[in-house]
Amino acid sequence: MDGVDKEKVQRIVYEMSKGSKYFQNEERKDAFITQKINNLRTQCDKLTQADLSHFQKVADRRILELEATRDLSRIWLHVDMDAFYAAVETLSNPTLKGKPMAVGSMSMISTANYEARKFGVRAAMPGFIARKLCPELIFVPTDFKKYTYYSDLTRKVFRRYDPNFMAASLDEAYLDITEVCKERNINSEEIADELRTSVYEETGLTCSAGVAPNRLLAKVCSDINKPNGQYVLPNDRMAVMTFISSLPIRKIGGIGKVTEHILKAVFGINTCEQMLEKASYLCALFSQSTTDFFYSVGLGLGKTDSPEIRFRKSISNERTFSATEDEVLLYKKLEELADMLSTDMQKEGLCGRTLTLKLKTSSFEVRTRAVTLPKYISSREDILKHASELLKAELPLSVRLIGLRVSHFDGDKYGGATSDPKQKTITDFITSIDANRNCFLPDVADHDLVGHTETDVSIGSWQTSRDPIDGNQSSDVNCQSGTGWRSEEVRTSGNNASCSNYGQVKEAVGSTFPIQGQFEDTSTLNLSNLPEDEGLNSCKDKTMLWLNDYKCSLCGIELPPSFIEERLEHSDFHLAEKLQKEEESRIHQRTSDSSRSWDQKNRITRESISKRQKLSQKEGSYRPIDYFFVKEQ
DNA sequence: GAACGGCAG
DNA sequence: ACTACTGCCGTTC
Questions:
Q1: What PANTHER family does the database record attribute to this sequence (predicted)?
Q2: Helix (H) or strand (E) holding A357
């Protein structure tokens, strides 16, 4: 951003925060990092020439191995909407045009428009500081429904170029445009141009694009000519190496403030190519996974594969409020969180056995306390009971945030489900009912939120929404809005939108997940947990079955309107499923509800999977969209 | 394997 | 008067 007086901005930010609890905590963290840097330096100094030559050899070998994995056969495009939330708000209120504006609140800004950025106002900056930087700044509260709606519009465009595109958040996506380029015999630059034009025509919003041989690079590229621009990095090794050589490491997804600081302070690394120059030191001081990532950065390597399915590993929620030591109040907050979390988990049919309590003290110190239970839980009572015990052990304490997380899901480690006692029971039970029925394993898996992430090489390469979410009147009693809009979102938009939170995307529910997965879950729950009539009605009502004329409201499978036969078959399937279920409940009347749910879930999921596989074989070009996640909320 | 802290987006 | 959520890594026991 030119025109920004960086010194002035820094000074104001410093003056506004200096002396605050937050600031003191930042200083504490800085001190810790400084210590870490000193330790690393010491270790470096201890390295002998012999050590270094040894590590150099190891590093060289590893770099060669990584180089051998280079794949220049794919063309990836990363799209990034420009100041997305702010742009959407301006669309719905044109009087904002040209004025400095920020989406968010006094506590936290999610996105600032370009006029505001001229003043140094940025995403993730608290509103009160932003106002100091720009007194006439207009604040607009976040409205995720709106962003989800526009996000869906953009995704309709993306889908035309890559039906299997990866949504990284509401405003970012990765598209493998290799095939389109081939089929239409045009180059990637033209595709990018055309795509951006289409997005603008269909949404009124501008975006930027980056094209490169892998996702890591594509992401970097989309930032180069932002806003409303694009940059193409050809699939050529020399071009990549030249591009990467002078690139500051901070531009790379996965290298944040701290890593940048450490690498610079200890090794003098500023650019990507220096990752290779200092390879022996890195090799000596960091783990294999970390050095692999660093070397990959130096080589300009990134992921080129199509999204693999991934499972959600945890689900959580947290709230900030004005710090208090009042135990009654704290328990009440805890109860609300347990309530919301349980609801979210049930929406997705999740049960987990590790519960983690997160506390942020009034001095911003973060603590987590966890327990792993002998059985899987998901009910509000179970969560609350164990959470209360964890909390109790920490009191008295002045707290400003409480969070709860459940992880270690059943069916976690693909198939690992059977290793748990309770599951064995269920498995056995179901098996006894129908020997043919296969439980758990990948099936269960699919029913989870799956996403894919690009994560990977260690410090990951995923993306999340760059616009932090506004905590919504953060500091106060407001703990509800979060979930509220989420559930609405799910029902109304029924699409890819996700509402997430973590960055890598979501559909409607909580945070981050792939849409497909989410829907499947939702549907599963509908069928198994709701009164029979509901499921049945939905099945019968063909017009209601296809959300946005595209996605099945029951299981989330995505079938475009042109798939007429498949659609018919699909609705028949749900009907049959329904009937079968009714029949079954008659037979196994005494079956416990929970067991029946499991059973039902598995069967449905299975069907969905095989259906999808069938489709992809038949129609090579069509595959359900996998999402990844987004986080927002 | 579990717990915890931290980074990143 | 500095968010919400998720994933992964490293360390320690």
A1: DNA POLYMERASE KAPPA, DNA REPAIR POLYMERASE UMUC / TRANSFERASE FAMILY MEMBER
A2: strand A352-361
- Residue predicted with more confidence, A312 or A452: A312
Read off the pLDDT of residues A266-302 as tens digits, 9 standing for 90 and up: 999 999 999 999 999 999 999 999 999 999 999 999 9
> What per-residue confidence (pLDDT) applies to A488?
25
Nucleotides on chain C within 7 angstroms of protein Cβ: 1-11
Using the structure, give the distance in angstroms from the CA atom of A386 to the C1' atom of C6, rounded to a whole number.
22
pLDDT at site A121: 95
Helix axes A532-540, A515-529, angle to 10 degrees: 120
Please provide the size of chain A in residues. Answer: 633
Walk me through the domains of chain A, giving residue ranges and CATH numbers: 314-411 (3.30.1490.100), 437-633 (no CATH)
Identify the residue whose Cα has the smallest distance to the C1' of C10: A287
Nearest to A403 by CA among A356, A460, A445, A436: A356
**Which residues of A in 17-46 have their CB below 7 Å from strand B's atoms?**
29, 32-33
Q: How far is the CA of A512 from the C1' of C12 (A)?
A: 31
Q: How is residue A188 written in tokens?
A: 């990637």
Residue closest to B3 C1′ by Cα? A370
Mean pLDDT along residues A416-435: 31
- Is A172 considered catalytic here? yes
On average, the pLDDT of chain A sits at: 73
Residue A104 Rama label (left phi>0; alpha psi -120 to 50; beta):
left
Residue A150 has φ and ψ, to the nearest 5°, of -70, -35
Residue A286: its pLDDT value, please? 96
- Report H helices in A530-633: 532-540, 542-545, 564-587, 593-618
Nucleotide nearest to A262 (CA to C1'): B7
Q: Which pLDDT does position A58 carry in this prediction?
A: 96
Q: What pLDDT does A7 receive?
A: 86
Chain B bases closer than 7 A to any CB of the protein: 1-9
A466 Cβ nearer than 7 Å to chain B strand: yes
User: Distance between alpha carbon A557 and the CA centroid of its chain, in Å?
Assistant: 20
Is the distance from CB of A513 to CB of A409 less than 8 angstroms? no
> Which range among A161-165, A397-401, A559-563 shows the weakest confidence by mean pLDDT?
A559-563
The rounded distance, in Å, linking the Cα atoms of A510 and A513 is 8
From the CA of A46, how many Å to the C1' of C3?
Answer: 42
Assess whether pLDDT exceeds 70 at residue A625.
no
